[in-house]
Amino acid sequence: MEEKTKAYKNRGELVFETLKREILDLELKPGQMISENEICERFGVSRTPVREAVRRLQEQGFVISVPYSGTQVTLLNLNNIKQMIYMRVAVETMVMRDFVDIATPLWMEEVRYMIRKQQALIQEKGFEPEQFYRMDAEMHAIWFRATDKMKLWDMIQAQQLHYTRFRMLDFVTETDFTRIIREHTELFELLEKKDIAGLERSLKEHLYYSMKRMKHQIDVEYKDYFEQEE
User: Fold this and answer.
1) Is 155:163 a contact under the CB 8 Å cutoff?
2) Using CA atoms, how far apart are residues 78 and 134, in angstroms rounded to an integer?
3) Count of alpha carbons within 13 Å of 151, Cβ hemisphere only?
4) 3-class secondary-structure state, position 31
5) Tens-digit pLDDT profile for residues 181-224
6) Nearest-angstrom CA–CA distance, 118 and 131
7) What's the rounded Cα separation, in Å, for the pair 230 and 227?
């Protein structure tokens, strides 16, 4: 723990960053209660840095204070997630249009390389879904970087409270990673052909697929992870 602590300004920041990552990676589940005593014991710190970390998590919406119960990880908001997917489809479609116009062989090779890395990863025994999630994000970021639109990509990635956790749940419950790679390969081939109409259709299906695939999980298995819609 001492070596980890050195990487952060203070113990409060270490606790904050660790809990935030665990919430985003679904190690701490939506709706789960967090005990201050357990955190103190786990990190070997006093209540002061723990309370500071919890306060920052509350300010950013990752946890809420429940009277007479303690601190709870916030639930996912399905309407927020649907709007984020809608926005991402709209923005990324435009970015990919721009990418088609400037995609050099070198940029295309970056996309091809990321797909190969994904193919290699799923051959690894016991690979973690979050590893695939990071590679997936790296690949989509390529056309934003190539078109000098990284500010937009960062804004999309910043929607972590609901959207990032939903994407992580998507990968945690995915049983066919080869399907995702096939879709990525299709995007690559459409980029090569400069098929704008095909790209827009394929990207929309790709980004919305998880909502369709997970309908049963959202309604039944992981119902407790989501705020109940009015």
Assistant:
1) no
2) 22
3) 1
4) coil
5) 999 999 999 999 999 999 999 999 999 998 888 888 899 999 99
6) 9
7) 9
Count Cα atoms within 13 angstroms, Cβ side, for 93: 18
Give pTM, 2 decimals: 0.82
pLDDT at 8: 54
Single-letter code of the amino acid located at 123: Q
Distance from C-alpha of 143 to C-alpha of 139, rounded to nearest angstrom: 8
DSSP, res 8: S
- What DSSP letter does each residue of 145-209 carry, written as one string? HHTT-HHHHHHHHT-IIIIIHHHHHHHHH-S-HHHHHHHHHHHHHHHHHT-HHHHHHHHHHHHHH
For residue 203 the two structure tokens come to 């990207």
Mean pLDDT score of the chain: 91
Render the burial of 135-154: b for 16+ CB within 10 Å, e for the rest. bbeebbbbbbebbebeebbe
pLDDT at 230: 64
CA torsion sign for 30, 36, 37, 42 is positive
For residue 168, pLDDT over 90 is answered with: no
Rounded Cα gap, residues 25 and 27, in angstroms: 6
Looking at this protein, which amino acid is placed at residue 197?
A: A
Best CA proximity match to 32, nearest among 22, 44, 40, 42: 22
For residue 28, the SS3 value is: coil
Q: Name 38's Cβ contacts closer than 8 Å, sequence gap at least 6.
A: none
pLDDT tens-digit profile of 75-100? Answer: 999 999 999 999 999 999 999 999 99
- pLDDT, residue 3, reads 46
